[in-house]
Amino acid sequence: MAEKKKTVTVTQIHSAAGRYADQRQTLIGLRLNKIRRSSTLEDTPAVRGMIKKVKHLVQVDEG
User: Fold this and answer.
1) Which domains does the chain have, with CATH numbers?
2) What mean pLDDT do residues 36-63 have?
3) DSSP code of 6?
């Protein structure tokens, strides 16, 4: 039986305007670029690191 992979849903809640370029690029890497846009991603250490970098701009829902 196949294992069900853990996912995390990330929603952008603040604008990237006026932020550092690396933070804007991290949002794009998370498939976010507008307020209230959501993305469901696999829960990996790389994704967690990206979320940590922009934690002040996003809301995270475990799932």
Assistant:
1) 7-62 (3.30.1390.20)
2) 95
3) P
